[in-house]
């Protein structure tokens, strides 16, 4: 079927009507091939006309010239219980130069399930009037799969929500960036989001959606909270929902489960990227030994064509919990109450060993050499080796986040900062610019430290620093592994900070390839200083800087021995003994430079 030009009138409409259909089953789809070619060919749209509804529902649109080719359109109809027909409308632009055509119209899976002679077993449901035998997981899911409504009879309204009359007993999270929006019909932006809801399959029905246009920014998140549920054994509690993820810049939809009210919970399921213009059903089996809550989190993509829809959420075999989830303390180990010190005669300028009460000089605290028998002088200091396994930061901290939140364990959204990460937590396509495996374990389960470039803006910096290091020896150096891969990598710097003076020791910028690279930075003799790792964000999120296995090697200061130097050693002017092999090697091994004196 094709359209011929009949006049040059502006906004001419050619309309093709289908026969009337009585009803469809829940899995019904319509497909056809179309041709829309020419400089000013104009738009076309397919409308659904349902008996009893004045407002038509737009099912499909094409706006412009799509080239000299046939293209296939697939439209999800779903369950339509009332008589309906289709109207295919073609609009002329007046100066009509182009051809529009349609061919091979096909309906698939549109019949109701057939009647069955028997329907036995706990996993099946026998429909009352149609006598169809359907899967038990389709019961009380807000979809009339039987065709007579019997699978949706006697359902607990507190365990399901189609958003036709609000959010039911679900709630918007107040800790996220924005809220889910309840809407009818298409979302405001073309080429993204649903055109209709899932419950009714028409523009009359309501659903929730995540708006990705301004003022929303990349990685803004909207979280929806379920009611609370009693503990459930595996297989007894089922969560069903329908989601819609259509658009070139759709990002992520995730489902989490939590048993603590102020925690993010653990990931049950996620979907990433464009899933085409259709509603998709998802079933999750929930188990928990404690009362729990479900969180549905949508995250905005890097553009306005990233709307996400949610509809027909339901639970089967779950029971509501009449209480509250507990909270956990957000206090970190670094803010614990100081231990009671033993009796001692130490001055204010000395450090008290916690076990013995022995006094040592303050310069001996945090110098990579344990001088107390219990090593308490090195307990809150930079660790010689840090591999970040067991999610341990080894004393490294972020001063900028402490100023914002008062507690660096709280992730400050929108801020370019350092975070612990691992390959197992990556979403698809993130492995292109973030390590898939750590360096320590070479597995997806191993942890590393990375600066998350999905937050912040171009040129932002993120610092992570050591505690104050009192003193280092002449051969001290930092060895670490870095991962800098991605099209918009910024830079990584290692800095030295003492009092108010900060100087650069090492820097690297740009993509270095998809592997871990070794780096070595010489420190030598320094006192009362901190080491800073500084990441600078590139022009976009496609480039995370990561580090792993940070080692302070040979950093302990020299000791003054009670014994005289041996024949193989040289006595420095300050009474230190060093190997004679270290003389005149351009390294200040003595700390007073006497081993490099021309008079030796």
Automatic annotation (TrEMBL):
Keyword Plastid: no
PROSITE patterns hit by this protein: LDLRA_1, LDLRA_2, MAM_2
Keywords: Disulfide bond, Repeat
Xref: InterPro entries: ConA-like_dom_sf, LDL_receptor-like_sf, LDLR_class-A_CS, LDrepeatLR_classA_rpt, MAM_dom, MAM_domain-containing
This protein's GO CC annotations: membrane
Domain of life, per lineage: Eukaryota
Any Pfam family matching the protein: Ldl_recept_a
Annotated ranges, domain MAM: 1-112, 159-320, 384-557
Intrachain S-S bonds: 140-155, 366-381, 565-577, 572-590
Ranges in a coiled coil: none
Ranges annotated as spanning the membrane: none
PANTHER family: APICAL ENDOSOMAL GLYCOPROTEIN PRECURSOR (PTHR23282), MAM AND LDL-RECEPTOR CLASS A DOMAIN-CONTAINING PROTEIN 1 (PTHR23282:SF140)
Protein name: MALR1 protein
Species, as recorded: Prunella himalayana
């Amino acid at each position: 079927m094709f359209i011929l030009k009949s006049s040059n009138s502006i906004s001419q409409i050619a309309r093709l009507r289908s026969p009337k259909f009585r009803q469809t089953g829940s899995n019904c789809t319509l497909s056809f091939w179309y041709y829309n070619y020419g400089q000013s060919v104009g738009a076309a749209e397919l409308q659904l006309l349902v008996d009893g509804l004045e407002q038509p529902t737009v099912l499909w649109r094409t706006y412009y010239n799509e080239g000299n080719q046939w293209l296939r359109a697939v439209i999800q109809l779903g369950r339509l219980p009332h008589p309906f027909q289709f109207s295919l409308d073609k609009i002329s632009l007046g100066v009509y130069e182009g051809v529009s055509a349609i061919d091979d119209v096909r309906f698939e899976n549109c019949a109701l399930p057939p009647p069955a002679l028997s329907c036995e077993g706990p996993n099946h449901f026998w429909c009352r009037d149609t006598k169809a035998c359907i899967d038990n997981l389709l019961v009380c899911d807000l979809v009339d799969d039987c065709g007579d409504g019997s699978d949706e009879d006697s359902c607990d309204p507190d365990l399901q929500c189609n958003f036709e009359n609000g959010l039911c007993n679900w709630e918007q999270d107040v800790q996220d960036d924005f809220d889910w929006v309840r809407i009818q019909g298409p979302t405001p932006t073309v080429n993204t989001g649903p055109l209709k809801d899932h419950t009714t399959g028409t523009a009359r029905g309501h659903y929730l959606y995540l708006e990705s246009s301004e003022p929303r920014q990349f990685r803004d998140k909207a979280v929806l909270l379920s009611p609370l549920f009693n503990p459930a054994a595996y297989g007894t509690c089922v969560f069903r929902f329908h989601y819609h993820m259509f658009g070139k810049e759709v990002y992520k939809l995730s489902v989490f489960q939590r048993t603590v009210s102020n925690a993010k919970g653990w990931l049950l399921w996620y979907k990433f990227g464009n899933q085409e213009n259709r509603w998709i059903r998802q079933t999750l089996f929930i188990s928990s030994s404690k009362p729990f809550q479900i969180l549905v989190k949508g995250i905005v993509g890097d553009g306005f064509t990233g709307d996400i829809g949610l509809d027909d959420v339901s639970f089967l075999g779950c029971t509501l919990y009449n209480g509250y989830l507990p909270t956990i303390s957000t206090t970190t180990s670094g803010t614990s109450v100081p231990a009671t010190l033993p009796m001692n005669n130490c001055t204010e300028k000395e450090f008290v060993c916690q076990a013995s009460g022995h006094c040592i000089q303050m310069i001996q605290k945090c110098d990579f050499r344990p001088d107390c028998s219990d090593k308490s002088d090195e307990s809150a200091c930079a660790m010689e080796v840090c591999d970040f396994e067991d999610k341990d930061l080894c004393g490294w901290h972020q001063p900028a986040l402490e100023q914002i939140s008062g507690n660096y364990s709280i992730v400050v959204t929108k801020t370019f900062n350092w975070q612990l990460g691992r390959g197992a937590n990556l979403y698809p396509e993130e492995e292109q610019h973030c390590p898939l495996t750590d360096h320590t374990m070479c597995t997806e389960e191993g942890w590393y430290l990375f600066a998350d470039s999905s937050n912040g803006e171009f040129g932002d910096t993120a610092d992570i620093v050591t505690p104050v290091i009192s003193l280092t020896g002449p051969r001290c150096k930092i060895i670490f592994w870095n991962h800098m891969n991605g099209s918009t990598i910024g830079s990584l710097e290692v800095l030295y900070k003492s009092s108010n003076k900060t100087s650069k020791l090492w820097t690297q910028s740009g993509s270095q390839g998809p592997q871990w690279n070794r780096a070595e930075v010489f420190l030598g003799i320094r006192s009362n200083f901190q080491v800073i790792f500084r990441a600078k964000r590139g022009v976009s999120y496609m480039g995370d800087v990561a580090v792993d296995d940070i080692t302070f090697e040979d950093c302990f200061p020299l000791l003054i021995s009670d014994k005289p130097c041996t024949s193989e050693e040289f006595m420095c002017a300050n009474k230190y003994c060093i190997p004679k092999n270290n003389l005149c090697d351009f390294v200040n091994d003595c700390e007073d430079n006497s081993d490099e004196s021309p008079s030796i």
